[in-house]
Amino acid sequence: VQLQASGGGLVQAGGSLRLSCAVSGLTFGNSAIAWFRQAPGKEREGIACIVSDNDDTVYSDSVKGRFTISRDSADNTMYLQMNNLKPEDTAVYYCTAGGSALGRGTQVTVSS
Predict the structure, then answer these.
(1) CA 49, 52, 57, 58 torsion: positive or negative?
(2) pLDDT tens string 16-73
């Protein structure tokens, strides 16, 4: 399974970004998918996931109400819509699907 996150960049506080993750080697269909992030000097944090059996979404308190996880099974692509970004959202963002290892991340930097 290979995953490649993209869509990161530099944005001002209050702005938005949409991350994408192209998944190959797995037809993720109803598989669980998730986004993680890791800021410099901090532990990796799970921030959003779609549970496999019922498509429920779960968010960390740090992003709830601002971020939305979704997927397009036809394109085998998952997304993370990030709104009202804050400087503390600055991190490398990673995706995972079907219990795979994390793919290559994408850097998100939010300036104050």
Answers:
(1) negative
(2) 999 999 999 887 777 899 999 999 999 999 999 998 767 799 999 999 999 999 999 8
User: Which of the 8 DSSP states describes residue 89?
Assistant: G
What is the H or E stretch that residue 48 is in? strand 45-50
Q: How many other C-beta atoms are found inside a 10 Å radius of the C-beta of residue 80?
A: 26
Binned at pLDDT 50, 70 and 90, residue 112 comes out as very high
C-alpha 75/C-alpha 31 separation (Å) is 14
The overall longest dimension of the chain from CA atoms, in Å, is: 39
For residue 101, the 8-state DSSP code is: P
DSSP annotation of 112 reads -
Determine the Cα–Cα distance for residues 71 and 80; give it in Å rounded to an integer. 9
